[in-house]
Amino acid sequence: MSALPNTPPNARAEADGTAPVPVPTRLLVHALVREDGTVDSGELYAVAGLLGMTDQQVRLCVKRLVAEGRFTHEGRGRKALLRAVADATGSITPNVAYVRHAYRQDHGLAAWDGVWHLFAFAIPESSRTSRDTLRDTLRHLGAAPVQSGLYVSANPIEELVETQARHLDVAHAVTFLTSTDLRVGGVDDPPALAAALWPLDDIAARHDRLAGLAQACLDRLARPERPTGPEQLAMAIQLAAAFTHAMEPDPLLPPELLPRPWPGTHARRLTAACWTALAEAGAHAPAGTPVPRLFVQYEDLLASVPEHLT
């Protein structure tokens, strides 16, 4: 069996010294759920080995998932079949609209209008849970803290924030405003503000790691000796984990606020090319075998993005 294009994430750091994106065993099991709701144990153990996991890790994880009622277990060892009891959690597919917007930005189709969107709130300690949830929502939507109780976004997320605030019953304590001349301390230059408010270096490093993995996978898929089905599945899971790792903390700032060239653009282009190559290779799903949901989710995800943008 040939080697994967990069060091297994659970084994050791990459050659350049950066920490690899880990693939938890539980996430691996969920990623291998096929369209008919089953997981083939032989496939699971084969892919786990390629990702640097031990058989014992897999056995313990499966035991926990069955005990939690998430899967049933039929048979023994590598010939066993797992069956998802309900819709499996642990998906590593980002939001479709979020990814579509990222590709539009990459191609200059979502220009910034120069407006900063600000959100201020003063929620008492008695509603601490709601306050923390609102804060988490703002961060998840890409807003950055300016100071205590004040967040800023370069994107118009008011409707989403207000919906969450109403759901938490704290809408009365939230103030919405916009500005075209935001200044924090002595900084008012928009790109400088973005660099000060968001961890752009960390986000860029995540995209660089994703780009490196996607390019390595593309190089491996281009060789005359095609990777086996388990190897392709391992590639797909690594790629999905790295894509999520890069995209989740990315506020999708408008290109006008980012350093040029921005590595996110390059990484997303390579990711789309890699998924296309994996789909065309097809060894991950022999004829007559149900396709892992992970492939279906990513194919649907990228299909939602106009082809000229990927």
TrEMBL record:
It comes from the Bacteria. Residues 110-181 form the Transcriptional repressor PaaX-like central Cas2-like domain. It holds the Pfam family PaaX_C. Residues 198-283 form the Transcriptional repressor PaaX-like C-terminal domain. InterPro entries: PaaX-like_central, PaaX_C, PaaX_trns_reg, WH-like_DNA-bd_sf. This is Transcriptional regulator.
